[in-house]
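Hey,

Quick one before I head out. I ran the complex with 4-fluoro-L-phenylalanine overnight. Inputs first:
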Amino acid sequence: MTKERGSFSRLGFILAAAGSAIGLGNIWKFPYMTFENNGGSFVLVYLLAVAVVGLPIMIAEIVIGRSTQKSPVAAFLALKKPGWSIIGWLGIMTGFVILSYYSVVAGWTVHYFIKSVGWSIRGFGPETAATLGDQFGLFLSRPFAQIGYHALFMIFSMTVVIFGVKSGIERLTTILMPVLFGILLILVITSAWSSGFPEAIRFLFKPCQISPDSLLEAVGHAFFTLSLGMGAIITYGSYMKKDESVPRSAALVCVMDTLIALMACVVMFSLIFSLPEADRTQFSASIGVMFTTLPKLFYSMHGGFILSPLFYILVGFAALTSTISLLEVVVAFFIDQLNWSRIRATLLMGLTIFAFGILSALSLGAVQGLSVIRPLGGKSQGIFDTMDYLASNWFLPVGGILIALFVGWILPKAFSRKEVEEGHGPFRLHGLWIFLLRFVAPLAIGWIVYSVIILGKSFN
Ligand code: PFF
């Protein structure tokens, strides 16, 4: 157990954790959720959820990881609370499940990047939203394409993780995160010239009616987007140095994640609001909106032939910095717990997750039997939806509650104070932080779990 675990530099941790947080959830899921929930007030509730539930739990996860310098299962054993290592086991299962379908969607960005380079060179042609929809449907039903792109993305992720914490994860994220921000900034600046921009900004910040369901969605999404509730941040925290400030790093990650999500909204809404009113309904919660509506919009604006490929590469990069964190959770367990070498753990687990993900890849039309089944009754259709349903509605919220309760109630206050102050100095908000973990976070998340169980709601 004396293996060199590796550690992040100061900026390395922040960029890697931000890389984990910033992903499809920000660029694809958040804009359409905001659109569906009528903008303004939903954004406000979401910001509140990040501040009072997300941030305290992120600090809690880093505290667990950094104080023990261990991956989630081993961390709770090291804290002499073996029963709580259930959080770690749940996290590994969640990482496994999310990565298996997330990598499928991530693979589509590679396909659409290639496709949009083709469009940019040959001209976009007479594609309409309907023909783009047909093409997308056809793409989903091609088994070899689905498995191939999923495989490609898993290979990218495995390659990075094999190189380890410093030369793999840190090196990649310190290159990709600034690039990602730069690309998004170019897109935001360009969209500022579109006719839909003023309305997009108004939509994002105008107050509106908000339903209890939207509140729940906002809290649920705060989890997914910040990579909380499954040990990813515990794992990255275990590579963080002791002379860094935990609260400041966590706050910075939350701010960056939120900023990118809002920027993605500005880009998408400017495009949408440039359309005539009647056509706006195309922008729906459908998973394919990024691949069916957006290309047409891009190519209808100036510079679209550059912006469209840039957009897909942006989404692909964002997804990659998230998939590596999902894989790292699983890999770190086998390294820490079973003393496997990094190469062995990455190859074996990467391949296993890839194999499991084939079920999701084929469940969007390629194989009828996997696409129409409802393993959880009426809840969701097909393996892909079912995996997303389980992870978003069950695994992440339950993991989140347990982490909040553990640090709020079980970990001695003196211990958490010492850890959170190490590298930070006196932490005046310690009392507030513990209060949020003890009461606010468990109640807010408990409400989600209650709604899922009793009211049969779904938040994916
Ligand atoms: N936070 C990522 C996103 O918003 O796309 C998804 C994610 C990554 C969730 C890593 C959980 C995780 F551990």
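The pocket of 4-fluoro-L-phenylalanine is lined by residues 20-21, 23-26, 98, 224-225, 227, 230, 232, 322, 325-326 (CB under 6 Å).

Talk tomorrow,
K.
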